[in-house]
Amino acid sequence: MKEKSPFIFTLLLALIIFLAYLAAFGLDFGTFRILPMGKLIKQGLDLKGGVYVVEEIQDKNIQSDTVDATIQQIKERVDKFGVVDPTIVKEGTRRIRIEIPGISDPQKALELIGKTGNLRFVGPDKSEILTGKDVKNSFVSFDENNQPQVALQLNDSGKTKFADATEKFMNQEISIYLDEDLVQSATVQAHITDGNAVITNMKSNEEATRVASLIKSGALPVTLKAENVRTIGPSLGADALSRSITAGAVGISLVLLFMLLYYRLPGFVADMALVVFILLDLLIFVVFNVTLTLPGISGFLLTIGMAVDANVLIFERIREELKTGKTLHAALNAGFHRAMTSIIDSNVTTIIAGIVLAILGSGPVKGFAVTLITGVVASMFTAITVTKFLLGLVINIKVFDNPKYFGA
Amino acid sequence: MFKIIEKTKIWFTFSILIICVGMGFLAVKGLKYGIEFGGGAVLQADLKKTINYEDINSIRQMTSKYTDDAQVSTVDSTGIVIRSGNLANEQTQKMEQLKADISKKYNIDPNTWTTESVGPSVGRELRQNAILAIVIASIAMLLYVAVRFEIRFGVAAVLALIHDILITLSVYAILQIPVNSSFIAAILTILGYSINDTIVVFDRIRENMRFMKRVSYEELADVSITQTMARSINTILTTLFTITAVYFIGVSAVKELALPLIIGIISGCYSSIFIASPIWVLWKNADKRKSLANA
Fold first, then answer.
1. Which in A102, A118, A371, B133 has the greatest CB count within 10 A?
2. What is the mean pLDDT of residues A167-188?
3. What is the DSSP code string of A121-164?
């Protein structure tokens, strides 16, 4: 072990530098590509632009089932927009937060989300046949020629009404309206008594999908009011991201430089551990699909500053132990051992604050709390394992085996 | 060795003075709430040209068509920010028209605007949640410290926390910095950070207590503070490196979060040395006098 230490240390240093490069720039092997970490982490709305809406349910005494159903319907409506990965979640008991990336017209988004959606089936004499309440389900199916069509399933109340109507309006047109917009007109070709109908003559698969989802998502069970509407222009989001990255680079460089200048050799080890911490933390974001927002980036950068704390505690302790005349080995072990209670107690209290924040905070505050918690946990882990292992290697290397380098 | 404890009166007076001035401002002027708390609208765009006084005036003219309470200001020399309490949700149409007007005049894409509007009820709930979060977090941390250390350490640490929150609030009230939802995140992070700092000092006192039985509590605290001083300074420096970089380089939304953090972190470092430990010493000495009197 002792003879191999210089080799292992150099290898690890090279590995850390390589991984850091990989995370920052990615690699391209022709067909096989490793994306840089920045591209793998999900970006929040404030970084890529889009519309952010918090809707409040105006009705009194709402059931949580109703809220869930409303969210489901809004999801279907937003999906029709064709946006990539919208977020629609319940916030508190009567609010729904909707994030639609990539669009910049709040008016359009609000109309789409909040449409009360009065669905009506109307006969040729303008009489109302069915409403959204009569429809159980609606989906795309295919006929024997593999042409798309829209299948309709009606519930019991709709079944009888539709049976009467299809008898009365045989070979005439029935039109389906959502609010004032005509969704589809179809000619009655059969007397339908079992509540299962199909609308044929769809031009394309897309059209069938649109009609089916419009019929299905029909009316929202509640009345919504937009409480908070935010539009983030795409260029402003990109600017926010690039400036945060610059801020991060400057901040991290200052921390690395400070540790190196103040603590010298152990400072260098702490810098290696800090790079491992940053990589680990970013990896956690990728693996757990954490959405990185602006406050989240601030939380991340804050934990970088705090991550060094564990190392500082350990090094100061090693210094003190060396001053009592201990050997380097003994001082290292004692330093780690005695710094540990401070590290654990101080970090647990920070995590407590983070958890409270994650539970009680709303959207952006939650993002901040999540990065704060993961950062503190990851920093504790790297300080305890990585720093300790690397320092153990370093004192086995002959040229460095001198208490002077550790502040004695 | 640093003689911190014997000058307790100076530290307490210094903090109380700042807090009194801050609370005075709070009582007279109140906190300035950002639109997330107060309700209203903010519109922001990059006009792609250096904005001069005339531009601001003409934009003010344009906004007066839609609302009478708009404030127009610039960010980063080419950006324009319009704030209004009246232009809230119901008037999205007015907001859209205003955006269109300005976009046309300055020849920018109307889709590049960043806007936000907030209804008045959101703010009240945010405020209640913030206070609830602070209370719950404080109780949870008090319990943890009481179990791991002793109740006196817990109470002293939480008093130091309250000190940090009051100092941060005071700076906000005195400088009239707008308070918004990232402020809550900042306050809670300050709680987490400040107690982190305090615990490191207390951990040292707890450890030294075991083999320094004959010294006074004053000396015990001074020794412990001295031993952890290098760590306290280095940690606050590294933390400030990243967060001030964010403040100076980041965009305005991030600055709003970074500023209270900077104030709170400095206050947290100060309070863990100059407030928390003296409180613990005062309490310990009071206990000792009591038990002597009883004996």
1. A371
2. 82
3. EE-TTS-EEEEGGGEEEEEEEE-TT--EEEEEEE-HHHHHHHHH
Q: How far is CA B6 from CA A317, B9, B95, B221, B274, in A?
A: 26, 8, 60, 10, 11
**Rounded Cα distance, A232 and B111, in Å:** 9
Which of B234, B235, B257 comes nearest A295 by C-beta?
A: B257
* Chain-chain contact of A244 with B246 (C-beta, under 8 angstroms): yes
Taking the model in full, what pTM does it have?
0.77
pLDDT digits (tens, 9 = 90+) for B255-281: 888 888 899 999 999 999 999 999 999
8 Å CB contact of A346 and B191: no
Q: How many domains is chain B built from?
A: 2
Q: Are residues A242 and A198 in the same domain?
A: no
Contacts of A113 (CB under 8 A, 6+ apart): A53, A55, A74, A77, A78, A98, A224
**B183 plus B171 within the same structural domain:** yes
Please judge whether B239 and A306 are an interchain contact, meaning their C-beta atoms are less than 8 angstroms apart: yes
Residue A80 pLDDT: 67
CA distances from A328 to A261, A335, A336, A406 (A): 21, 10, 12, 8
How many domains in chain A?
Answer: 3
**Integer Cα distance of A363 and A352 in angstroms:** 19
Together in a domain, B138 and B250: yes
Residue B199 near residue A342, CB atoms below 8 Å: yes
Interatomic CA distance for residues B86 and B68, integer angstroms: 8
Residue B64: C-alpha distances to residues A230, B56, B61, B69, B117 (Å): 22, 12, 5, 8, 18
SS3 A200: coil
- Chain B residues in contact with A341 (beta carbon < 8 A): 203, 207
Full domain range(s) for residue B246: 5-33+121-294
Say if residue B89 is in the same domain as residue B210: no
Last residue of one domain, picked from the residues B118, B145, B160: B118
Q: Is B204 on the interface with A (CB under 8 A)?
A: yes
Q: Comparing A114 with A137, which gets the higher pLDDT?
A: A137
Rounded to 5 degrees, φ, ψ at A89 are -135, 155
Residues B60 and B127 in one domain: no
Which of B118, B133, B164 represents a domain boundary (last residue)?
B118
Give pLDDT, residue A364. 64
Show the domain range for A196: 119-217
Residue A349 belongs to a domain with what CATH number? 1.20.1640.10
